[in-house]
Amino acid sequence: xxxxxxxxxxxxxxxxxxxxxxxxxxxxxxxxxxxxxxxxxxxxxxxxxxxxxxxxxxxxxxxxxxxxxxxxxxxxxxxxxxxxxxxxxxxxxxxxxxxxxxxxxxxxxxxxxxxxxxxxxxxxxxxxxxxxxxxxxxxxxxxxxxxxxxxxxxxxxxxxxxxxxxxxxxxxxxxxxxxxxxxxxxxxxxxxxxxxxxxxxxxxxxxxxxxxxxxxxxxxxxxxxxxxxxxxxxxxxxxxxxxxxxxxxxxxxxxxxxxxxxxxxxxxxxxxxxxxxxxxxxxxxxxxxxxxxxxxxxxxxxxxxxxxxxxxxxxxxxxxxxxxxxxxxxxxxxxxxxxxxxxxxxxxxxxxxxxxxxxxxxxxxxxxxxxxxxxxxxxxxxxxxxxxxxxxxxxxxxxxxxxxxxxxxxxxxxxxxxxxxxxxxxxxxxxxxxxxxxxxxxxxxxxxxxxxxxxxxxxxxxxxxxxxxxxxxxxxxxxxxxxxxxxxxxxxxxxxxxxxxxxxxxxxxxxxxxxxxxxxxxxxxxxxxxxxxxxxxxxxxxxxxxxxxxxxxxxxxxxxxxxxxxxxxxxxxxxxxxxxxxxxxxxxxxxxx
Amino acid sequence: xxxxxxxxxxxxxxxxxxxxxxxxxxxxxxxxxxxxxxxxxxxxxxxxxxxxxxxxxxxxxxxxxxxxxxxxxxxxxxxxxxxxxxxxxxxxxxxxxxxxxxxxxxxxxxxxxxxxxxxxxxxxxxxxxxxxxxxxxxxxxxxxxxxxxxxxxxxxxxxxxxxxxxxxxxxxxxxxxxxxxxxxxxxxxxxxxxxxxxxxxxxxxxxxxxxxxxxxxxxxxxxxxxxxxxxxxxxxxxxxxxxxxxxxxxxxxxxxxxxxxxxxxxxxxxxxxxxxxxxxxx
Lengths: 593, 282
What we know:
The complex is a heterodimer of chains A (593) and B (282). With 593 residues, chain A is α/β, with parallel strands linked by helices. Chain A contains 18 helices and 21 strands.
């Protein structure tokens, strides 16, 4: 069992403070210099219902929630019964001995009872139960008490009169563990002696919202929907502080149209939603494409179809993002792959929207949205923002909003600019923007709008964070994927490589336009491409097969879909096993040939 | 409201795009009244934006020499809300018909009203769908026989004025396309009103539901005794069979963008990204 790489799970009723315990504990670990990665499941109930909080803590960057559970923390019997089957043999159970009776001897589990209720009662502060447990966890797993105290001050400091009692509770748990658990546990953490490296601790949705602010977004319009809502809540608090505004719209259709209106008036604007909301926004997506209005639409995907499972994850909206809408409306699609990447891809998204005057869909998902990750400090000095190209109105008496150009991009005029009047027109229009239905004009305008995709495809080769590529250059087996499955893929590959398998991987961050140049170069010489996706049909795999069919057929490269559609993210072992299976298959084939 | 020292003439407010409305359509009168109001108010075309949806009214922005946005069906108000929020210096209009405003876009009206977004919303109500060639609309009378309702409609018509009053709109008025002078004055008052101004304009469709005679018969000037700050009295007048023309209601609570500006000031309005990121540092 490795030191400094542990998976800890806390399960129980929602409202019991499961998430509080988890979030405070991982932050203590993060602030002690360790890397963290959390995984949450939410109950469907508004109050009550079962909630699971899981965190992986390590001294190396953590890429996935791990394969098995080393530690189970139980505050009540249900929290024990429901999860004990998943604790690995020899794993540790830390539990409230007042409420939980564990099965002695089961799977060689090591038991660590803490009389949480009793201890809390001894200082007449039942509200401190969670902190008693955190204190015991801090001591048992080897985290520094001063960091824990700092974190309690930081997270709970706003309840000033309760702070002494909160700290006392923490210390009670800590001292109890010190006295009673004298043997070092099999799993523990060793924070780096040099202390915490500079870094950030945040969720995927926070990183998206911060990316939006960094990208100059000043108007947000949205409608509450799980699991995207906290983007709106975050921006509602912070956007006014940078001179922006948040409008909680009456529905998603209003939200996207408000964002489009705001962008037309010159502001960088966005909305965020989940699949059902994006479905409602599709008509307006076409409008933004037709009127060439920049706008960013975040889709935090959840399992569907229809209402589906709002608190479970999926990568099922790729087709929706790529193709939805009547006739052909060009748009861009971007998919961040980690909490850190959420920040940078929002900058890419706004840059794409503004530079090419197009709607951009950003595909996040339910596992990435609430996940707390440690990430390196954002490189703010390296951020380059592209402004929309504004018309030079002094030079012309007749401004043409939709002037046909080589790149497809026409200089924009926004209200307030002298002499730039025009109508942003959802009907087919001529260069001035006046309605026009002639066959020639429609053809010319369809081509102009589509041309921006090809212009972007070429120019994107010079942009940062467009693809992520790693692994063995000469590997016969490759993995391609998109979005938040990147972490599990990295981990699965590291394990396979350590065992002597050769594997290479590529994740495009911009899915439309596909970075053809990099992908064609990447697939050359491979024998098989594994494409893991959290959807049933293999939407990305089908897109790869379709787009690169010539190369795939010519070079005899097989596309192997690995599809999971259970509402849960990939575990690295699932991808690892596929790599081994494909490797064996290739070996057998080589022998036959 | 950004104004010019000298007004732009009505003919110069008119764009070179010719309306495609049927000869005799009420919407010509509405367009001319709106152009006259723009001129009278000495508005600056660079700071006027008009949002529209779909229907005979949809191409309205293209007929005016100003900034315009011709959006999708029913969404003129969300577009206008976004425009005004992003740039409060602009004078913003939304235009639509009874289908756009009360049917497909009916869900936006209460919220634009309660949000009190500073937009003048001109709804050309002809009690029928004209662009799709004559189907009953949410304001059509009961019993209307058309191809889509061969046995006559059963649905009761909406009462837009009563509806918008109950939504809490801060300016509620009705005009008639055949009374351009009065309509111009109503639009001017609507623009000058700081907040959401709703103006229902009876604007007959000569082709599919010619209501000129009917509207003339059923309309009457607003009683001089009516006090537009009295919402109950306004509601009473709205529920009468006579369709009164004039201002039903007006109050002066601050508009949405003023609230947003106050909110920005309260929140601090000087945050840098570096400062914001400090909170997430370990």
